[in-house]
Amino acid sequence: LSAQWIKTNGLQGGGIFNFTRAGGGIIANAGTLYFSNNNGQIWAPLGAPPGGVAYQVAAAGQALAVRFFYDNSQGYRVVFSPDMGQSWIPVATADTMLFYELFLAGPYIYGADYYGLYRTADYGATWEYVSQQQIRDIRYDGQRFTGIRFPYVVESLDGGFTWNNLLQFTGNPIGFLQQDNRLFLFMQNAQDGCWSSDDYGQTWQHYT
Fold it and tell me: Is-contact 138 101, C-beta < 8 A?
């Protein structure tokens, strides 16, 4: 397995909250944002979001949305950049919006928590709930959403308003990934194994 991994340069020590593919490269979120377009050989800081510690980063092309670990010094929980961090726009949110997940799809900024799935197209001036179901680990490939609504892997083709069941599973899922048409569901216990699909969840293989 060690032959499959190559050590990158930079960002030594400390912690990384998450990595995000964006702008033809990778963003590393260490509370501040760094960008690499050469597989981590060189890292450059992005324009810093205004105040606060970045906790989650969502990306679509050159557009970024950042959720802070706490509300930033200006009282905002989420900010948006249309140009890879060169400029930032505050996004108004209600205190009841917990933003367990944050992602971008088309003209919308989406958030999700146990109250449901909500979105805005005007930087938070108005929000609409598209679903009041608790859905997590949401992935978007430009056409469809996939995610987990326990005990199912689910799919939406209409922006999150309706969801179809793709797989019913047992056990506790700890990870869900999508790469093109391939879906992967990883379970907590070895006896529950993992599931994979090569056709957007129409058929599944179970591995234990």
Answer: yes
